[in-house]
Amino acid sequence: MSKPAIPVVVVFTILPFLFSAGGAFATQTEFSVWLNTLRAEALEQGISTSTLDSALADIEPVERVIELDRRQPEFTQTFWNYIDARVTNWRIKKGRVMLKKHRRLLKQVEAQYGVPPRYLVAFWGLETNFGNNLGTFPTVASLATLAYDPRRSAFFRMQLLDALRIVDRGHVAPASMLGSWAGAMGHLQFMPATFIAYASDADNDGKKDIWDNLTDVFASGANYLSSVGWRHGELWGREVRLPSDFDWELAQLQNKKSVARWAALGVTRADRTPLPQRNDILGAIVLPQGHKGPAFLVYENFETMLHWNRSINYAITVGHLADRIIGLPTLRTGREADNRNLSREQALELQQELNAMGFNVGKPDGIIGARTRHAVRNYQKKVGLPADGHPSISILRTISEARL
């Protein structure tokens, strides 16, 4: 069993005051009153007094947590910029070293849960750089900060109570419960609720240790993936080439067809060899950077990976990193796509332009979601452009010029 060093705890500045829901300053006394109600709720749920005394002693809001929570992304990162920053030569080589080093343990986990080693290593590499960046924020204090703050208080209150349950069950001491600013913990960055539902005591030592015990780490990750639908013996997906007359409206995650049917429509592997003629596996075409970018035929395991993180870019990156770790080739197509990041201001402008033209995106907020993509697709269909639904600087300029 590998036991990585526990990260050094850094000292965080504590907020003397915290904004209340109405924008006025909330005093430390008000936080203490709130904490007392949280403590009473935890006691009602069966969490022991001794756990609450140790975990909540002298706890105060953490200023840095609020700063990070308020930091909105300035742009929507393109697929190529996203994946190139994560599937690096260093991470591929390190992944191969880790795969070899822990092969016996990973194979044992695969035998029990059906998740191949390369995927667990890929998740591990992306989440914490193979355990090098577990996070140094005190989890209970971080979650208390976010639970007290009104922006997402209900969600983080639930996570805080689960974190206290984890301590109460003896899995980790409060001082050793460290993670990201938002409460994600351990080698695979589980939120407390995910820990409660899926963490595993694989070595039967009485603790589910996702911070310092790779036996538990890999078993917990595999248990999670298996529980949410991982299909043993199937790929996550593959890069493909689409025919020149491809109907771009077919490229939607919810539009599933058999692999044989996609082959009949002219879809091939990226190296131009035929797809397998299989009717028993369903897949969907995904275009993470529009019709000029790479195309992927993704299967059920891809959607399973989306349970881990709802980002299409993230799931493709996990799958591709897993493939590269075992020696499969780099991506072959789509580098000619417009690779300029769409800023938040530009995304807001795109939404406003679409609304003005009758393509409803709802209230413009500068955040690209399903409604914005649907509106883009409808605009593209109306004007005879490839209807890939991909928001980009190019489509923004096209729409803006059409409105002049």
Describe what this molecule looks like in 3D:
Helix content is 47%, strand content 7%. The protein is of the alpha+beta class and 404 residues long. Among the domains are: 237-325, no CATH class; 342-403, Orthogonal Bundle (Muramoyl-pentapeptide Carboxypeptidase, domain 1), CATH 1.10.101. The strands form 4 sheets. It has a 5-stranded antiparallel beta sheet. A hairpin with a 5-residue loop joins strand 1 and strand 2 (25-26). Helix 5 (89-101) crosses helix 14 (312-325), helix 6 (103-113) packs parallel to helix 11 (214-227) and helix 8 packs antiparallel against helix 9. The N and C termini lie far apart (65 Å). Residues 1-17 and 20-25 have low confidence and may be disordered.
* Shape descriptor: globular
H and E order: EEHHHEHHHHEHHEHHEEHEEEHHEHHH
Structural class call reads: alpha+beta
Instruction: Give the uncertain stretches in residue-range form.
Output: 1-17, 20-25
The percent range for strand residues is: 5-15%
